[in-house]
């Protein structure tokens, strides 16, 4: 019975620490709900995998993917969990503290909680209202609040800015 309780505690800790770092103020205090057709836990490798129709919600955050893998590093390594999501595409939606929505998508999303670094790969897009940025690779350093987008040599980075929406953002 003790081993089963330890498994449940490990699973809960992995999930809660992984997605709370992605959320904003109000969202981080909300429960995390993960629904999928299948899930598995590898205690030896400290990996939780959710597959098929994965839906993750926490407050205003909604993430949809085909597969989500949460990996916990070895104890005392000084590292934190990583989250990888795969889909065609992985999608996410969140309402910011100012009430404005942010949407994103990519075929692969990687988030390292230790470095607070988000990577969107393959058909990546970040969008707020009609303004958006598309590229093969989009990275976001959460601590530094720095975004970079790259093409793949065949396609270039595309950015669309809507002046009226930029003005509204300045006014708030």
Automatic annotation (TrEMBL):
It holds the Pfam family LptD_N. InterPro entries: LPS_export_LptA (IPR052037), LptA (IPR014340), OstA-like_N (IPR005653). The keyword Ligase does not apply. Keywords: Periplasm, Signal, Transport. Residues 33-145 form the Organic solvent tolerance-like N-terminal domain. It is found in: Periplasm. Residues 1-23 form the signal peptide. The keyword Transport applies. Involved in the assembly of lipopolysaccharide (LPS). Required for the translocation of LPS from the inner membrane to the outer membrane. May form a bridge between the inner membrane and the outer membrane, via interactions with LptC and LptD, thereby facilitating LPS transfer across the periplasm. Component of the lipopolysaccharide transport and assembly complex. Belongs to the LptA family. This is Lipopolysaccharide export system protein LptA.
